[in-house]
Design brief:
One of its GO terms (molecular function) is cobalt ion binding. Catalyzes the NAD(P)-dependent oxidation of 4-(phosphooxy)-L-threonine (HTP) into 2-amino-3-oxo-4-(phosphooxy)butyric acid which spontaneously decarboxylates to form 3-amino-2-oxopropyl phosphate (AHAP). The structure is a single chain. The protein is about 40% helix and about 15% strand. It is an alpha/beta fold. A 12-stranded mixed beta sheet has the order 3-4-2-1-5-12-11-6-7-10-8-9, with helices on both faces. Helix 1 (about 25-35) packs across helix 2 and helix 7 (about 185-200) packs across helix 8 (about 230-245). The two termini are about 15 Å apart. The mean pLDDT is about 95. The structure holds nicotinamide-adenine-dinucleotide (NAD) and 4-hydroxy-L-threonine-5-monophosphate. Nicotinamide-adenine-dinucleotide binds next to helix 4 and strand 12. Nicotinamide-adenine-dinucleotide binds near residues 131, 303, 306 and 311.
């Protein structure tokens, strides 16, 4: 199965989009810059906003505007934050959403996509955005995952969150619960599983991945007594995947699947919907987890948390997830390069 990712060069810098300007995205970028990024990293943000937030946080970080031509020689220096500057539409009040700045949030993403597509950066790492305020600003937006899919012109992508010892991918992403059942089709499950299987091999070094698949209904439908989606849709899809050489186990009841007995022999769990899989992942790893979009032409990781408007500017934002997201992005680029070298020499 071909890997759709363009070859990532792990020697290139990472780029972060700082996300919702009123939230903790700017804080975690600055707090991490104060300690030093694990790799050469540039941040897309507004220069004045970052200077203002650094002073609110009371930290010594030199916020330095760079030109994209400087990305090739970017160095990694604790206490320095290299900014690709984007203008704001209105000044930011920390902790207060303002729909007038929705365009700014999207412009950051568009620049990151351009830099990743032309391979100026090895990967993009996204800070948290507020989906609601972007929509209030007149821009239809359900999440980075769907936005990146559409901007990259790919039919399907997969949201997968990972933390130490657990990876959880989703069949459906940002969808109202009432629409979930209809969105789960045999084709959809197969497309998602193929991407997941492929990326577990190419980006995570799993030789022969095993994917645990949840049911949709309580107790995986209890043989049709508690719903038919397992019998009508999930089981036939898993049978078809078996024919394609993709190893899955399921549908398993979601309430009993997340235990060592099952997880220790699996590479990922595939849940049917957002709040079936992510609460378990975030309970286990919030603060040290990463959100990854699989199936894009480039590597994208993200923090596991939201905009946390309640603590923006307070200095209480934990940088653990940003640090994890940066490290995952880099190691995925390394793994991808290794796989491509192996394929060239095969
Ligand atoms: N990556 C993303 O873009 C992303 C991810 C999740 C949620 N969101 C969005 O964020 C907004 C707010 O969502 P929410 O309130 O459900 O989740 P949230 O993660 O913003 O906040 C939940 C709680 O966790 C705390 N928290 C979050 N991150 C923290 C950190 N780094 N350090 C310390 N405490 C932290 C917050 O203070 C809050 O009490 C929503 O619009 C949601 O869609 C965006
Ligand atoms: N579903 C994500 C989570 O709960 O962490 C979050 O909403 C961000 O999703 P995007 O990366 O698609 O914006």
């Amino acid at each position: 199965m071909a890997n759709p990712c363009k070859p990532a060069n792990p020697d290139k810098p990472l780029v972060i989009t700082s996300g919702e300007p009123a939230g903790i995205g700017p804080d975690v970028c600055l707090l991490q810059a104060a300690q030093g990024f694990p790799r050469a990293t540039a941040v897309i943000a507004n220069l004045e906003l970052m200077q203002q937030r650094a002073s609110e946080l009371g930290i010594e970080v030199t916020v330095k505007k760079i030109d994209r031509s400087e990305l090739a020689n970017l160095s990694n220096q604790a206490g320095v934050l290299a900014i690709l500057d984007i203008p704001l539409d209105q000044p930011v009040i920390t902790g207060q959403l303002n729909k007038a700045n929705s365009r700014y949030v999207i412009q950051m993403l568009d620049l990151a996509i351009e830099l990743a597509n032309n391979q100026t950066v090895s990967a993009i790492v996204t800070g948290p955005v507020h989906k609601g305020v972007i929509n209030d600003g007149g821009l239809a937006f359900t999440g980075h995952t769907e936005y990146l899919r559409d901007q990259c012109g790919v039919e399907e992508v997969v949201m997968m969150l990972a933390t130490e010892g657990l990876r959880v991918a989703l069949v459906t992403t940002h969808l109202p619960l009432k629409d979930v059942s209809a969105a789960i089709t045999q084709d959809k499950i197969q497309r998602v599983c193929r991407i997941l299987h492929n990326d577990l091999i190419h980006q995570f070094g799993c030789e022969q991945p095993t994917i645990l698949v949840t049911g949709l209904n309580p107790h995986a439908g209890e043989d049709g007594h508690l719903g038919y989606e397992e019998i009508d849709t999930i089981i036939p899809a898993l049978k078809a995947l078996h024919q394609q050489g993709i190893r899955t186990q399921g549908p398993l009841p979601a309430d009993t699947l997340f235990q060592p007995h099952y997880l220790e022999n699996a590479d990922a769990v595939l849940a049917m919907y957002h709040d079936q899989g992510l609460p378990v992942l975030k309970y286990k790893g919030f603060g040290n987890a990463v959100n990854i979009t699989l199936g894009l032409p480039f590597i994208r990781t993200s923090v596991d948390h939201g905009t946390a408007l309640d603590i923006a500017g307070s200095g209480r934002a934990d940088t653990g997830s940003l640090y994890t997201a940066l490290n995952y992005a880099h190691s995925m680029a390394q793994q991808q390069q290794l796989k491509q070298q192996e394929q060239r020499h095969a």
